[in-house]
Description:
Blueprint: H1 2-30, H2 36-39, E1 49-51, E2 64-69, H3 75-82, E3 92-100, H4 108-120, E4 123-129, H5 135-149, E5 155-159, E6 164-165, H6 167-174, E7 183-188, E8 216-225, H7 227-235, H8 245-256, E9 261-262, E10 264-265, E11 270-271, E12 273-274, H9 282-286, E13 290-291, H10 296-307
Amino acid sequence: xxxxxxxxxxxxxxxxxxxxxxxxxxxxxxxxxxxxxxxxxxxxxxxxxxxxxxxxxxxxxxxxxxxxxxxxxxxxxxxxxxxxxxxxxxxxxxxxxxxxxxxxxxxxxxxxxxxxxxxxxxxxxxxxxxxxxxxxxxxxxxxxxxxxxxxxxxxxxxxxxxxxxxxxxxxxxxxxxxxxxxxxxxxxxxxxxxxxxxxxxxxxxxxxxxxxxxxxxxxxxxxxxxxxxxxxxxxxxxxxxxxxxxxxxxxxxxxxxxxxxxxxxxxxxxxxxxxxxxxxxxxxxxxxxxxxxxxxxxxxxxxxxxxxx
Length: 309
């Protein structure tokens, strides 16, 4: 019995020490804002809207807003989303977020985007160059737009355009989910920076000194209560910009003291946010929220099969 008491006491001390250290990290992050020149990279004051839809939430408060980052040239992907899970619905709103194409406002593609925006009213574009390296900037602009223009929505989902989304199942689960301080998806708890300069996700020690990442959510798709949009935007004042947007959001969550929730099904504890590509199977897809890596034509095909069942 004495040994058990000692073990329990030691466990409590270890837990309290860990909580103290975690609190110290949070405090340091919150009280040391970035230098103005560094924060300028993600500051909403740095960029202006080229195309915007500020009126879409004036007369409604969507239950779920889909925030879809896409490249300017991905018109086919946008159209596939509009015809599948991103179609207009009573509970949902879908918006596409873009930067500028190469050649900026003088690009012929820009004129095509302007016509597309007039036709569909779902494109939001800001004046930074659209590139993989600028995905973090795009993500922060998405958060700021949601906080400014659709704060009365209940939830938002950052989701890539090559994803299959089971909207019915997602909304069903969200009906019983927390409305404040909630973010869920495929949580990565053992991530670490790649130090090989030839790696696509290379991160130098100068840019990120730590040897591991805090828990973060796969950028393929994650869902959060809308209150977090403004809070994540605020937290970006304290987090140095890195080109890994999903990790960056995780760093912002650490500043806020918000822990991402792993979304899984029972009894097998399978992730509901499947980041691999799977061949279509009715039973499998019915029990998942997302499945990854679909070409526009494949997304349309899967959607057609689902509707005919």
